[in-house]
Amino acid sequence: MARILILGAGVMGTALAVPAADNGHDVLLVGTHLDGAAIAAMRRPGGVHPKLDAPLPAGVDPIDFQELRPAHFEEAAFVVIGVSSPGIAWAVTQLNDLLETPKPVAFVTKGLVRDSENLTTYAQSVPPAVGRMRDFIGIGGPCIARELANRLPTASVYACADTKVATTFARLMQTTYYRLAVTDDATGVEACAALKNFFAIGVSAMQTRFIDARRGGATRNPTAGAFNQAAREMATLCDRLGGRRDTAFDLAGIGDLHVTVGGGRNSRLGHALGQGRTVSAAMSAELVGETVEGIDTAQALSAWIPAASAGKAPQRQGFPFASAIIDAVTDDAPFRFDLSGTGLF
Amino acid sequence: MARILILGAGVMGTALAVPAADNGHDVLLVGTHLDGAAIAAMRRPGGVHPKLDAPLPAGVDPIDFQELRPAHFEEAAFVVIGVSSPGIAWAVTQLNDLLETPKPVAFVTKGLVRDSENLTTYAQSVPPAVGRMRDFIGIGGPCIARELANRLPTASVYACADTKVATTFARLMQTTYYRLAVTDDATGVEACAALKNFFAIGVSAMQTRFIDARRGGATRNPTAGAFNQAAREMATLCDRLGGRRDTAFDLAGIGDLHVTVGGGRNSRLGHALGQGRTVSAAMSAELVGETVEGIDTAQALSAWIPAASAGKAPQRQGFPFASAIIDAVTDDAPFRFDLSGTGLF
User: How many angstroms separate the Cα of B335 from the Cα of each of B55, B57, B195, B338?
Assistant: First the structure.
């Protein structure tokens, strides 16, 4: 049995404690300054995370980050960073302050980092920023945290340049309800994990935008065509970001896109766009106060996908769907896409 | 402007007449002996196909097959076979009787042909059976007929070993609402078009089978994991059937699977299986009298996917999801799948 340290007691960090503890490992679940209430709730007898409503198995020890010491890292076989993307810099600081022996560190945090002309994933930007990190492991795939915490069948992928490390960690974590694949394409998994939020906005918009005028109700051809186009463009973007195309056609890409279109904040923004509303209208109404990660990705991509001409859509050659999402976000304009540009002619 | 002859006035054959006629072509829409009522309805002024409820454009001439003459074929630039799979032998007979000059023939009919040890697609089995066929064109992609007939945005792929032929036909057919890609992998498109019905049974079963026990309602991780596994296994089966893996990750594969899971007879059978019922129970209740094409594909695959051992699941090495669907169909047994066998270990 191993000790696993999870930094971040949000829904995903906490959910990962469930298969780890079910496999008999000791899990130290460390709340950030945002997780105080959740840690307090989980420390009560029979306590549950407020957003997961699943009791934690014995073997999970929830603590606040103020209690965290270098010895906790020293005892851990694997460290998992479970913070959300605004917390990644804080997590890097913790690793630099407290991690004294090089260790493999797994990340559920997703995002693209824009740095003047470059766009990179955490697989590329984080390792050089952490002094004593040994291996970067990216976690991707279709995983809604509360479903994993409730032990529903869930598939995910662990990605590390050294697949032996990913395999070792996956062996510790896999259960009958948590099925793990392994890949060496950490950059591709990280790229897809960010891109799927962005494309989910567009696919969800298509679901709402086109209705059956004669019979009422939703239609399926426009959504399926958009889902397919999202997969195509995600594969090309994944490749340009340094990952592999086939990663987009597996768990971290189409698998996670499928689950993300099914619900969540990116999907809700998409439905608002599909109703003909703008991003600012949705963000000041049903999404007020929420973080919609696909918006950040749209802004990062807007400067990075080269414009084919000075004109507007389809200005980004080869990316008609991404262009439509970027334009809706950056211009705060109605979403316009009807599969135009996806065929041969 | 060209003349296009569509043999079969079911929903798909009739729907294809809409973009063709919108592009100014003359369309001869020929009903089979099953289409008498539909042809009669469409011949009335302002007539509509009973299952499409969209008026046909001027330029579509609906006739009964008894009126069909060799001259009709002679005048056509392209022939489209729009019959369902039980009608494919009849359609081949018509082509042999009436097609006097070799022509390109496009097929929307989908199925796998089992011939002792071999399993083949229509792309392989039909051309040798037709004396004067020139090019086999397979039509695939996410296309619900009545949505196309109602001019909702739809993406499809035209496949022909000679891509110039597919491109010529696609240029005749593409409209602002019907976006066409072209590929040379006709075998792959035909394989995926049959396989997606089969896999849609399983993905739909997963949607129904796993519910959120604490909050009620559908879950998403199991369905997304199953969708992804379907894509993986479809790619491998496509390859073994003589097509290309990447065809499964595009319109004819994941695109069409996406639309098929959203509704239709294969999906309804899947939901019944997800409720713990058997195929025979569903076929004698809500699906009585219906043809569920995925059942035929399951039976064709059951002999063809090699069993890894004499035991039961996961007896078909590398195909845990296909095996679960095959077992439910061929044993008339409850559907059992929980993503087991999809991970590394």
Answer: 42, 45, 18, 10
